[in-house]
Design a protein that fits this description.
about 325 residues; 8 strands; globular
Length: about 325
């Protein structure tokens, strides 16, 4: 038995599993709230390979310390085994969002204090306790920051590469756990202050339940990238997505390690880039995503276009075009 067979369970996802599933229920058979999430059916295959457009630049910044801090910070989460989507019931995210809101209130309070001092200095001098209002948001920020730091992430949607299972938390019920092959990709949008944001929704074929990606973007093709990342991450027969996040851990996944040996992929392909170089790649990928034509049925893209050495050839080509223009 190979190391790969020892590592992955019998339920681990493979692309062929998707085509053995029963026909999915018609969207019209679900409730109106579920239909609002199942707006646009995405293709089952990979159609957009601009994975770098969704990569957090915080990951790349941590690389630049080159002191193992990234591996230490991320490694505890076993990111090469399990991918997570946030939910509105994750307390850690709740404290973080409240902290962000209070930062804006603090700025407003600071401006208000300056305005009061400028226009009514004598009044403020007579009632200095009125300035205490200024410190309230800052105190709350420190409290929420501490709560965020010491709270454990909870109620997360989990995609397990080793088992092929998707875990969706439910309020007051046991988590909904099913094989990845039973889910189908959709996209939906909602109105925000500056327009609309597009999100991916991974819906179960038969049950009225799914996983909603809260990380929305203004680009209509954004859910296609979410799906490309997810389907490659879950496929035990394919290497991990070749993005900076997974590079330090590629050797821990047998399929990926085998692919890297055969392809001759450098161990530090991403980590040897300068921060500015990766940021430029990130911007180019975002531009490509923005220009992606959603008015026609997208063509199928091979996973090889998202792996070394294809990504190296692609970046060299794009760099030449960028310099020429």
């Amino acid at each position: 038995m190979t190391a790969t067979n020892d590592y992955f369970s019998d339920t681990a996802y493979k692309e062929k599993d998707r085509y053995k599933q029963p026909k999915e229920r018609a969207t019209s058979e679900f409730s109106s709230s579920e239909q609002d999430l199942r707006v646009t059916r995405l293709p089952d295959y990979i159609a957009c390979n601009e994975l770098l457009s969704k990569e957090s630049m915080d990951v790349v910044r941590l690389f630049n310390f080159n002191d193992g801090s990234f591996e230490k910070k991320i490694g505890d989460f076993n990111v090469w085994e399990e991918l997570y989507w946030d939910t509105s019931r994750n307390k850690k995210s709740l404290w973080r969002n409240l902290k962000i809101v209070l930062v804006f209130f603090s700025v407003a309070a600071f401006i208000a204090v300056l305005f009061s001092l400028f226009n009514d200095y004598e009044g403020v001098k007579q009632e200095p306790e009125s300035l205490l209002v200024f410190f309230v948001p800052f105190i709350a920020i420190f409290i929420f920051a501490a709560l965020e730091k010491y709270s454990k992430a909870s109620n997360l949607i989990k995609f397990n590469r080793r088992t092929g299972m998707v875990t969706i938390p439910r309020k007051g019920k046991a988590p909904f756990i099913r094989p990845f092959a039973e889910f189908v990709p959709y996209s939906f949008y909602h109105t925000v202050l500056m327009g609309v944001n597009y999100h991916m929704y991974l819906a179960h074929r038969e049950e009225e339940i799914g996983a909603k990606n809260l990380d929305g973007r203004k680009e209509e093709a954004s859910p296609l990238v979410d799906w490309a990342l997810l389907v490659q991450f879950m496929d035990s027969k394919q290497p991990l997505p070749d993005v900076p996040l997974y590079e330090p851990f590629r050797h821990l996944d047998p399929t990926t390690a085998e692919y890297d040996i055969k392809s001759g992929r450098p161990e530090r392909y991403w980590r040897d880039f300068e921060l500015l170089e990766v940021m430029e790649m990130h911007v180019r990928s975002e531009n490509k995503l923005r220009e992606f034509n959603m008015s026609v049925t997208p063509k199928k893209v091979s996973f090889k276009t998202m792996q070394w050495p294809s990504i190296q050839r692609y970046e060299k080509k794009e760099r030449k075009i960028s310099i020429a223009t």
